[in-house]
Amino acid sequence: MKRELTCIICPRGCQLSVDINKENTEVTGNACPKGKQYAIDECTNPTRTVTTTVRVSNREDTMVSVKTATPVSKKDIFKVMEKIREISVIAPVKIGDVIIKNLCGADIIATKNID
Ligand code: SF4
Questions:
Q1: Does the predicted TM-score (pTM) go above 0.70?
Q2: Which is the closest atom of ligand 1 to the Cα of 30?
Q3: CA 11 / ligand 1 centre spacing (Å)
Q4: Per-residue pLDDT tens digits for 52-84
Q5: How many Å apart are CA 97 and CA 64, to the nearest integer?
Q6: How far apart are CA 20 and CA 33, in angstroms?
Q7: What angle do CA 69, 109, 82 make, to 5 degrees?
Q8: For the chain, which domains are there?
Q9: How far away, in angstroms, is 5 Cα from ligand 1 center?
Q10: Which residues are paired to 6 by β-bridges?
């Protein structure tokens, strides 16, 4: 199976060709090793950083922005969003506070201060 991808690791945006077969995965078009690893990951277990918001229960009409501290598998994104939608936090909240520990392999952390 062949796939064409654009590497998103750095602004250069190399156009990658990936040839996946049972024996090995061949990547061309990458200007550095990071592109090869990106292409392999994208074709075998693509991951994304999830960013969203969580309700602040003791502040009227207030949400705090959050994100996964590390990327999660694309297949787990709906599970992550579902769980985040169920919860609320109590202010004060500081950037970097862990809102949920180890959700599908990643901590959910605050990206905004709420006094
Ligand atoms: S392959 Fe390397 S140089 Fe090219 S976009 Fe990816 S990280 Fe940047």
A1: yes
A2: 1
A3: 8
A4: 999 999 999 999 999 999 999 999 999 999 999
A5: 11
A6: 17
A7: 90
A8: 2-44 (no CATH), 51-110 (3.10.530)
A9: 11
A10: 15
